[in-house]
Amino acid sequence: MDDPSTVPHWYLFDYGMVISTAPEPEDWEALQEAAGLPLEDRNSSYWLHRHGFDSGALTPQDYWTRVLGREITDGLTSRLEALDACQWSHLNAETLDVLDDLHLRGARLALLSNMPAGMAEQYTRSSPWAGYFDQLFFSGHLGLAKPDPQLFRDVIQQLGTTPAHVTFVDDVQENLDAATALGIQTVLHSPGINLSAELGL
């Protein structure tokens, strides 16, 4: 049995609404103008098909065809992809400060995000926040999406640790519940949170 003192502890962060902020109204306006449809509402086709897109079951062409309800060109698909990536690229300065603090302390940091593969690859290449993390896990690459318990099990295994040695920060209670059921420590990221205090920093 591993000595508990030698098992590494990891801080596992979600991306959307934790590292990023919500899209601005003008972001949704630009995306909706390109799509010709209202998309922001949680009951819209954008959200209806998002889980399949995030988990890699749908290609960008498949996803946006379903969102728009018609066949679309590669050019329009590329434009919608660019606008979608742009609207989720606004960053939460307070979370970045916490990541910087943890990084300076030598903490082990990983990211687990429900994110389609194309967006994940773009952010990994171009976003400074990616450099804080020792490991990056994206649903679009793994073929599973939160809150699937198997996704958490696979991530824990790849981190080489145990559930009790992981603190998971996410904004969705359903995702936290799935993690808690496996023995992972969790923190709900909600508006106005003092994340440093919640993490005991």
UniProtKB/TrEMBL annotation:
SUPFAM superfamilies, alphabetically? Answer: HAD-like
Matching entries from InterPro entries are given as: HAD-like_sf, HAD-SF_hydro_IA, HAD_sf, PGP-like_dom2
Pfam families given for it? Hydrolase
- Reading the lineage from the top rank, the first entry is Bacteria
Which residues fall in a coiled-coil region? none
**UniProt xrefs under PANTHER family:** ALPHA-D-GLUCOSE 1-PHOSPHATE PHOSPHATASE (PTHR43611), FLAVIN MONONUCLEOTIDE HYDROLASE 1, CHLOROPLATIC (PTHR43611:SF3)
Name the UniProt record assigns to this protein:
HAD family phosphatase
